Batch of 2 targets.
Target 1
Amino acid sequence: GNGDRLCFNVGRELYFYIYKGVRKAADLSKPIDKRIYKGTQPTCHDFNHLTATAESVSLLVGFSAGQVQLIDPIKKETSKLFNEERLIDKSRVTCVKWVPGSESLFLVAHSSGNMYLYNVEHTCGTTAPHYQLLKQGESFAVHTCKSKSTRNPLLKWTVGEGALNEFAFSPDGKFLACVSQDGFLRVFNFDSVELHGTMKSYFGGLLCVCWSPDGKYIVTGGEDDLVTVWSFVDCRVIARGHGHKSWVSVVAFDPYTTSVEESDPMEFSGSDEDFQDLHFGRDRANSTQSRLSKRNSTDSRPVSVTYRFGSVGQDTQLCLWDLTEDILFPHQPLSRARTHTNVMNATSPPAGSGGTNPGSNGNSITTPGNSVPPPLPRSNSLPHSAVSNAGSKSSVMDGAIASGVSKFATLSLHDRKERHHEKDHKRNHSMGHISSKSSDKLNLVTKTKTDPAKTLGTPLCPRMEDVPLLEPLICKKIAHERLTVLIFLEDCIVTACQEGFICTWARPGKVGLLSSQNQANSPSGTVV
């Protein structure tokens, strides 16, 4: 109904609006709440979905000088200010999130590389906290706060080197994925404070992270311009995606398009309408998780899985990706109904599919369930998008094998290396001058710096030719400034850019609901 609220920050200002999605643009002249800060500016925020009602909402706001504020923008209350005297951490807040399932616990990450666990009921004290080591491991340490009475922070995590750029809780709330400026993804068991697994970026820092709806896969993005898919169960990289031309700032799974289908092996033949019907047998997000859990337990017909995720970057582009069974389970035979490449989507969009914006050609976000990215001959010869690729020679070749098993996924390792040896990976030529964004080396756990040359080619960071390379289903320039937000909702996708445009893109099939656009000079936004 009218339950959605939108919060965004621009410069020193924070705005809070009723959000109507695809139905109507927000009335920018009537914010529910607007705050202007002096001496510091908001950098990130998070709603508590557990306690949110129509009359009240708990909103955490992180600031550039290290403080965290708890406010209720509906009741216009400023509840509390944490780290007010900056005795806990003086560096910028990079990420703040409520602990899943908790009304009072929240986690805050800083550019110092530290994370702190707070309880809204406790004070922060008038002196700097004293810490006691709780647990230490490879490149991380966790301390408890030593004091006579319970005070914030409850825990201090020191993770990796340089800034801790983002973290994300698993869907069940038990695990925590962190990405840092040192290029590492680290996944922890949150309660037992154990390191579950790690991964290293191909190049540079990792900037963003997200979990699949079932918690089986993690996707990261960063300064190597790649999206990287990591298996939580196997603790290994299973694919990389190359479509962005600059740093990837946000990655997010689309729970409404992630599909699980029980499909009989069948060969496709028929009209566009039949092809469209094939795709719309997918389940919606509310049952996605339970269906995904059936994936490995079913004994009858094969269950086919397609995960959809998106990414936005500093290159102003939105990319959509499908993670399909030929990538997830390369040693299992594919259902033939699922092996049509996105070449077919690009050349013959299903009838009646609506575009995502007024100038769309109708196939930007179509038939999400079953597309398989075509194989790539070389890692550095990617077309800009699947659509522009439709008429090229390699696509026609790939289209010829569309009714068979995806060629790239079934290549032997030797074959793949043969195809890659003719051109080395040259993606780094434009990045050599970039230095680490954070010079803050406080509280380093270990002085031994990881040599990138030693991790390349290991399970931590496989070579480009050793893992499948995904191509985006669509890669579209949607802004003039770098993109900072990507949120998937049931009937739309929300994006925002540094220039201050928050755009609502209607999903295909939402009749007569074209994109509405709010300008608010907003570098970041979130939807509750």
Target 2
Amino acid sequence: INKSSLTGRHEAACDPQPQSHLIRLPHDCFQNATNSFYYDVGKCPAKICAGKLDKGLRCKDNTAYCCGVSKMETRQISCNGYTLPTKVAVECGCKKCTETKKTVRGRAIAADNGEPLRFGHIYMGNKRVSMTGYKGTFSVHVPADTERLVLTFVDRLQKFVNTTKVLPFNEKGGAVFHEIKLLRKKAPVTLESSETNVISLGEMEDDDPIAELEIPPYAFYRKNGEVYTGKVKASVTFLDPRNISTADVTQSDLNFVDDEGDVFPLRTYGMFSVDFTDELGTESLNAEEVKVHLDTAQVKMPEHLEEMKLWSLNPETGLWEEEGDFSLEKSRRHKREERTFLVGNMEIKERRLFNLDVPESRRCYVKVRAYRSERFLPSEQIQGVVISVINTEPEPGFSSNPRAWGRFDSAVTGPNGACVPAFCDEQNPEAYAAYILASMGGEELEAVASAPKLNPNVVGVPQPYLNKLNYRRTDHEDSNTKKTAFSISMAKPNPNSPEENNGPIYAYENLSECEEAPYSAAHFRFYRVEGDMYDYNTVPFNEDDLMSWTDDYLAWWPKPMEFRACYIKVKINGPQEVNVRSRNMGGTHPRTIGKLYGIRDVRSIRAPGQPSVSAACLEFKCSGMLYDQDRVDRTLVKVVPQGSCRRDSVNSMLHEYLVNHLPMATNNDSSEYTMLAPLDPLGHNYGIYTVTDQDPRIAKEIALGRCFDGTSDGTSRTMKSDIGVALTFTCSERSAAEQSAFQSQRNSGQQS
């Protein structure tokens, strides 16, 4: 290895000059110098750089080195009546990468009624890696070299069909939450092995079945190859794509590998799972020479008839493998009129999922971004949101009423949104439609409204392309419907039309263009309805990028692989919603005592039906070890409601805990509350909510849901102001001259 070239690589890879990184300051911290609420704290991009060399000029070790902050300075920012310390990156250098963990977590539940998959086994390939809990929850560590995560969920009680899913995860570390919907097994029917047996594949009551399985006499045999005679218990479960609500139950990501080794998508006409056992249900049976009769009247695209194949799912790879072709055959089945069927032959010899599918090459990508609020600011984008696309086949003349779904795909938002694959058509914009939704931590995000007035600036797509795409939020025709998804016609962009070549739909070959598209390019939007909240960390940290963590005593999160979120519930008696702040300082650790870790601001939310009561779930810095894991700090937390407020009461259990766990903070000022935060993860009985996770956003999301609900295991997006409260204040009405803190910042933030 040439030493000079390696050193050059080291220097080139890590520019010592930090990049600009603006953080938002608190609402009472306007900076006249920049005429804004922003301050540049600098950042070092967490990219790989060359490590140190030993005397033999060989690469010293296998440790990954990343560009990171090598020198910080503390600056004092002047605010309204106080100074705010902040740590600014002044030099970048090559150092060991921050270790992060990649995780997928979530819950596995029945698609029909939400029944959890209790103590189900989770396999990665043929290795069991985890188990679901009593409520169907699970967490799986993603191995470092994983490119495609394939998990199979197996129900030991055999209520549900074995389910294989390809789950997107966050490459930068942290956790992504997935809700796994399981198909309930059909109750078994008894067949005579000596007779011809016909099983219908179709779940729509008023429609003909899509297909039928025909099993000839004496087709069943045991694992050892001998013919089985006697009664057979057969459970055949069909996923009918004509039922739009079943799309999220789809297994795998509907892809296959062609002869050249390229991955291509499939468009499904139905999936079925077959389970044959002996009469006692103890021995699994195989069946040969099984015929599949597919009703051609159910295939609305004529070209699909020639391309239809039978596939089976390989649960280890999550890819579909070809089982056989179909041939056309006219027959009069069940004394009906003569019909044309596609007939295929198959052998059922292991518990695999089968699929009636067509390879489809007309593909595009849809650009979607998720935001923290309806302001849709580029700085307020959220990462780790799962964007899902259901491809639907519209009913002729009724674009909002799809006839069937054909494919389900998902992707996770990164710092520049997400590009999700979907079928599209250049000649006929309405040949395919897509139904798009977004979720984070199991909670659905809201899409931009399409009625009563469609605003292209808010949707994020200019006219006339927006009209061509026929954007419709789910409540377009009925305002009582959920607002959490939208549908579009998948019109492939016309290369000769400039207004169609800047997003939000990109041709399949233009994936990199989609991924690198600037914020100003057209895109679809989702946002969180999370009310007004604000976070300030003395040591800047981007919760979406765990590699941005810095080892500092004043870091809000002391460990980059374990994030503990703490919230306190504050009740406000008074006619107005109030801004509540937590000021978090070192309390007992000699390195941090009296120094600021950070500030949290949140606006109280009025309780439904109670005009003079509101409540806030306010984050504070948990007590515990600091980054060196040497000794604990009891964080000094000051809770201050804005305006003219008086402390009425403190939760008696919380007060008793703090009295018994000295030192005790003094509380001379009745307009606020000060405590040395508890070391123990107290629960709702104390008005404290604590959650630990490998991802800070998910830890906060779960803790916040519990705090809103006032329980230690539930979740709610509706504030329950009387349950699980820690502190109660009474606040008198402010004069009209006292503008809301958040309002003043919002107005100025939009100008800046």
